[in-house]
């Protein structure tokens, strides 16, 4: 089933400024769309609006059928919440079995829980479970009703790193063939789960595309920064401009894994900082007034002078910010 | 020194505790057992106790039946909510004797329902009690509804439950303690109501099972006041002692 | 259909709104202007209004002075807290006429302070009002204290402020709205107190500036009740109307 | 100034089981100790106890002076909270200047805020700021009193990934020469900031050592898993045992970045999953009944059969679980 949403809604909390969400996206059958954005960008409100929890303008359609006036219980969605939202007064099995009264063909709770690795918890109550266990149960509850579309709202955000990685792997399996909309602020999660990514900022979808497009060809500095690219304003980095022979005032982006460094290259730079990450070292260089990041398994020393190379095929000019450029 | 803060707070707080606790202590200490026994054997007191439990129970039930739906609506919010909130809280700020007069204007002679006798009737007493105790039922239940995470109701809806089913399977079970609290508060408030009842129904006739027929007595706080006016502090103290004892017992049983 | 739930809840809720709202509406609609004018010009009513604002003000101040420190202690928790909480809530569950009798046992003739006249005095009236209104001051202030994130006070302490300074610079400013609410609630509760005041101080003598000396009158709800007993519904309704009008005005000014 | 804590305390929340913290650690002058552990392990309670917010048994000493009876305001700590805990009724400047009344030599709020990149916010109120801005202000407030020891409770946990990385870099500078205790559940943050790491679990310090020791020589499977190592129970992986010629039933650990794979090697394995991370791909292999992770810039395809190599110098036998071993 495909889902199309073009919603516009205004939300006002007590005393706070009202917040406007105005976003359109489409998800094809079997596709996982990840909505990626900073906190406060309206991702969760958008997802809840699609689910039917908030009134809104603009159509939400499922396979071309407009569902604006369909209450949530008739929309055939599954929903996984950041804070699990398990019913505390029901056992794990009762939680997973919750939807069976309203759906003809539901999955067996015990089997489903066993598949998700929590088969031993069926008679426990949610408040006695760890965060990771609760989220697996919540996932089972949503899957049990065999929903046409799965909606997931930052399901990993409240979890520890190891728990998160293990559940993310299972989510990847679950979502492989499902139609799903997945909200997160974590770019690694987005890349791991998405067929396509919609980047959201300030209530609006600012770019939508494949992970490769989003990560390698960001259309704005915001998208580039949020996906971890180096964002280089050439005005602040004359030595990069002259090295690259770029005939524009624009902003270029390049992924840190594409930046090379060594004893020779395009631009001279100073090592400013080294952070050890799981697989490698994240090295920050200073060139003129800008910083550039790269990865290196064997890190140089802070203060070293090196030469950076920006491979031409990895460089990207931000379209929005430089209408006419030639790299 | 840091602890001087705690000492100062404790000193001021203790003075208030004395003002609240000493009367209760001396009230208990200065009772005369002979008068208590006499009053405890008095059939009038028995009738008063029966009415003092039974009438408030009716008021609490009425408050919950109509108050829980209202509390649920208030917890979700709606247009014109502030006006409704003001009306709900009205009985809390109106002097109780004035509340009685309001009820007589509204439902007494020349009021909304000419066929219903309110003045001096059981209906009037329960109406007066409901008027002053409904806000407690509404507010306690509303608080319970509001403390439920919205997303639990979202989860129920999205996985297939209608509003009705969501209320029955999720909202109500999670708010049931708040409803019980609201009912108990409404009941306690009705038990202790003096002013409105004294104005609307000073004396009440009602069916009293042990006598097999109608008897006439006063609602407990009115009865205590009447005893005070006629018999003085010692006698009314004994009646009040029995009333507090029975109330405390019922409270313990509910818990 | 999904909306049947909302319709049902709204229907039940509306019945309660009618029970609460209709009396007020008919009370206003059925007033006779001539009697209101007559009462509004009556010096006895002026004295009553003066006492009805002034006495509760004293009670509210006393409630706050001693109640805020107690509320702060309660918000932090201490051993024996449950006993103190029960005592604080005692006046909420005791029938008001019984509350009056408790006060007479505690502070009246033969009570704790033989040199203080409580029965029929200003001191007695304020004591009775404080007894029934202090819980509101304590509970509202306590709620305000408890809603402050603990870590704000931690942050204050760790960066150098003592308990006193933390209270003065962080806790109190953040709880000030709760304190004001508590004071207003206590004041409103004292204004509306009928039973306890009727028992302890039916009539009160006090210094009345416009007369330049002592006058004797009743606390407003008692005055309304007395008018009802002597003059009937129409007269007491007019007095109640004036009382509600003045109360509403003061409320609006405070807001 | 050095800090030594050996605290023991029991905490009970309403209705919950009581929780016992029993932990010892020491921080030398100028050293940053990171307390790393899963959520619910008692890290925050331990830090708050050291700060003097909770009664406890066992000494807390500063330069050998016992401070158990010293109230928090006399302990000379700075504290940064996960939820910022800024005073909402004071401006940013007033927040930072809060401690100046109680300390002789405080830092200028405006200068400090400018150094931390939020010099333009001095007259704003905290609720109008973003999370990252609030945390910079909170950091300034703590630094303003020139504390002997900085205590930091997951200051980055509530922030977006890009905001987190940028503030982490600044924290690294701030903590370079400071005496600090830093609580986190994020292993990358731990490695980036720590001189030494104490791993906490279930109220206790289970291992303490340099980042290198913690990451490469974990003393228990819990520490290994939580720091991202492969944990291999040789009972479940006979082909690894025979390839390595290990004469023990023990559990061995190896960091994923040390696992090599290619057309030849020690053990035959199947590619099970590939997750794209910032710098590289995280590849999961299946060998017998266990999974092994490795990193690869050029990922194989899922289902490929490859050979894994476990370099002997990277293999570590969990001491606790295998008393006598020879690798």
Automatic annotation (TrEMBL), chains A, D:
Compartments, as annotated in UniProt: Cell membrane
Q: What is its EC number?
A: 7.3.2.6
- Kindly indicate whether the keyword Nucleotide-binding belongs to this entry: yes
Source organism's superkingdom? Archaea
User: For the ABC transporter domain, which residue ranges apply?
Assistant: 2-227
As for membrane topology, the entry says:
Peripheral membrane protein
What is the name listed in the Swiss-Prot or TrEMBL entry for this protein? Molybdate/tungstate import ATP-binding protein WtpC
Species: Haloplanus aerogenes
Upper lineage: Archaea, Methanobacteriati, Methanobacteriota, Stenosarchaea group, Halobacteria
């Amino acid at each position: 089933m495909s889902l199309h949403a073009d919603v516009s809604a205004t939300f006002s909390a007590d005393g706070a400024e009202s917040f406007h969400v105005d976003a359109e996206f489409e998800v094809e059958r079997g596709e996982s769309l990840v909505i990626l954005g900073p906190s406060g960008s309206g991702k969760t409100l958008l997802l809840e609006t699609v689910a039917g929890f908030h009134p809104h303008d603009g159509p939400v359609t499922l396979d071309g059928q407009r569902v604006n006036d369909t209450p949530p219980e008739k929309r055939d969605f599954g929903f996984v919440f950041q804070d699990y939202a398990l019913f505390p007064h029901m056992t794990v099995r009762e939680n997973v079995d919750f939807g069976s009264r309203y759906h003809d063909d539901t999955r067996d709770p015990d089997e489903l829980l066993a598949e998700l690795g929590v088969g031993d918890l069926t008679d426990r109550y949610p408040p006695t479970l760890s965060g990771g266990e609760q989220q697996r149960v919540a996932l089972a509850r949503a899957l049990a009703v065999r929903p046409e579309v799965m909606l997931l709202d930052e399901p990993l955000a409240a979890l520890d790193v190891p728990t998160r990685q293990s559940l993310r792997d299972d989510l990847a399996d679950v979502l492989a063939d499902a139609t799903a909309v997945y909200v997160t602020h974590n770019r690694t999660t987005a890349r791991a789960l998405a067929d396509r990514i919609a980047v959201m900022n300030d209530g609006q979808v600012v770019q939508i595309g494949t992970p490769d497009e989003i990560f390698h060809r960001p259309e704005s500095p915001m998208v580039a920064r949020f996906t971890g690219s180096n964002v280089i304003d050439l005005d602040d980095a004359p030595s990069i401009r002259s090295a690259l022979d770029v005939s524009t005032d624009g902003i270029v982006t390049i992924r840190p894994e594409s930046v090379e460094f060594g004893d020779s290259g395009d631009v001279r730079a100073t090592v400013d900082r080294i952070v050890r990450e799981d697989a490698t070292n994240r090295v920050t260089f200073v060139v003129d007034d800008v910083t550039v990041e790269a990865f290196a398994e064997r890190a140089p020393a802070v203060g070293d002078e090196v030469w950076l190379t920006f491979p031409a095929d990895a460089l990207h000019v931000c379209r929005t910010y430089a209408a006419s450029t030639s790299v | 020194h840091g602890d001087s803060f705690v000492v100062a707070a404790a000193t001021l707080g203790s003075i208030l505790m004395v003002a609240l606790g000493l009367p209760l202590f001396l009230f208990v200490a200065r009772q005369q057992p002979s008068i208590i026994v006499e009053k405890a054997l008095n059939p009038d007191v028995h009738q008063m106790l029966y009415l003092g439990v039974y009438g408030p129970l009716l008021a609490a039930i009425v408050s919950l039946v109509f108050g829980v739906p209202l509390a649920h609506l208030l917890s979700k919010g709606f247009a014109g909510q502030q006006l409704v909130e003001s009306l709900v809280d009205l009985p809390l700020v109106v002097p109780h004797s004035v509340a009685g007069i309001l009820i007589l204007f509204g439902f007494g002679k020349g009021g909304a329902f000419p066929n219903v006798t309110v003045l001096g009737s059981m209906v009037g007493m329960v109406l007066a009690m409901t008027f002053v105790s409904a806000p407690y039922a509404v507010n306690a239940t509303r608080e319970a509804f509001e403390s439920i995470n919205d997303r639990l109701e979202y989860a129920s809806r999205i996985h297939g439950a209608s509003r009705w089913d969501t209320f029955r399977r999720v909202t109500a079970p999670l708010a049931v303690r708040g409803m019980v609290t609201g009912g108990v508060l409404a009941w306690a408030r009705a038990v202790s109501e003096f002013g409105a009842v004294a104005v609307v129904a000073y004396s009440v006739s009602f069916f009293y099972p042990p006598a097999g027929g109608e008897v006439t007595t006063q609602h407990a706080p009115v009865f205590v006041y009447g005893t005070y006016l006629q018999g003085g502090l010692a006698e009314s103290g004994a009646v009040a002692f029995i009333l507090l004892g029975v109330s405390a017992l019922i409270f313990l049983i509910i818990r």
